[in-house]
Design goal:
With 220 residues, the protein is α+β, with helices and mostly antiparallel strands. It has helices at residues 44-50, 60-85, 90-99, 104-116, 122-136, 141-150, 155-165, 168-183, 191-204, 209-216, and strands spanning 14-22, 29-34, 37-43, 57-59. A hairpin with a 6-residue loop joins strand 1 and strand 2.
């Protein structure tokens, strides 16, 4: 009896680099031609790392490795540059990398690296953002947490930072500062009209009804 054993052939492709040409607009980037046709672009440090030369033959899996490294390296440069100006939230950085057409797996790899290196920390970012708001243009607790959500800070971190920085006394202090500045520019017909406008303004700045009432000495 003859037993036939099925065998499977897993195909792969081998392509030869026929030309490496420096790009005109970006002197750090090169066009890679394989089998006579343009295939993809690479940065000079990628070419150096893999020692690529005209005449080299590459399997498709090696090509994928090279392109992934190039994308990762490019994404890191964008990230470090973006973070060098000021602190950013993770959500802001992800949005920036997506705008540069960096793939999700590579973005995840980059953000993990930056978190490990302490360049990216949403709690530190939230604390700094809130401190800046409090010192330059005070807002109430309700608006502050909305601002943090808009920056992509998750609920747990946002609520923790708000709780640590917004005691009732602190919020009353901030509301009083905002009120004094507003009173200098407001136009009103009488005291009742003035109080009504101040009340609405403080609410619009994110202060809660109880805080505003205490600051304005409003009686129920």
């Amino acid at each position: 009896m003859t037993i036939l054993v099925n065998s499977f052939f897993i195909p792969f492709f081998i392509l030869k680099i026929t030309k490496i040409e420096k790009q005109k607009k970006d002197k750090t980037r090169y066009n890679i031609y394989m089998e006579g046709d343009f295939s993809f672009g690479l940065y000079d440090d990628t070419i150096l790392k893999f020692g690529l030369r005209s005449g080299d033959s590459l399997k498709d899996e090696k090509i994928n490795e090279i392109m992934e490294f190039d994308e990762y390296n490019f994404g890191k440069k964008i990230a470090y540059s973006y973070l060098s100006y000021r602190q950013r939230s993770k959500s802001e950085l992800v949005k920036k990398l997506k705008q540069k057409k960096i793939s999700d797996p590579v973005i995840n790899k980059i953000t993990r690296l930056l978190e490990d290196q302490k360049y990216l920390n949403d709690q530190t970012y939230a604390e700094s953002f809130l401190e800046n708001k409090i010192n330059t243009k005070p807002i109430g607790k309700r608006l502050a947490i909305i601002k943090l959500y808009e920056k992509g800070i998750n609920k747990e971190i946002a609520e923790k930072v708000i709780e640590e920085n917004y005691s009732e006394d602190k919020e009353i202090e901030l509301a009083t500062i905002v009120l004094k500045k507003y009173e200098k520019i407001i136009k009103y017909k009488d005291e009742a009209n003035k109080k009504s406008k101040c009340y609405r303004y403080l609410i619009s700045r994110g202060f809660g009804y109880e805080i505003v009432s205490k600051v304005l000495n409003v009686k129920d």
